[in-house]
């Protein structure tokens, strides 16, 4: 499996939604979220990032 660095995430504001565009290679995924959905994603992502950060500091002897 090859890991490429040509991934990109762009977030734009449309009239009533947030548009998230995730590009990886030649593929592109577009997700449109309402304010509530975007806020739920924001909170969930924040929790997962904090968990990830704590796991990075966890030392197993």
Automatic annotation (TrEMBL):
This is Uncharacterized protein.
């Amino acid at each position: 499996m090859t890991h490429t660095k040509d991934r990109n995430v762009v977030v734009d504001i449309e009239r009533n939604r947030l548009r998230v565009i995730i590009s990886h290679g030649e593929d592109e995924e577009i997700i449109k979220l309402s304010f509530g959905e975007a806020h739920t994603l924001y909170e969930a992502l924040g929790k997962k990032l904090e968990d990830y950060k704590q796991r990075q500091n966890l030392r197993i002897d």
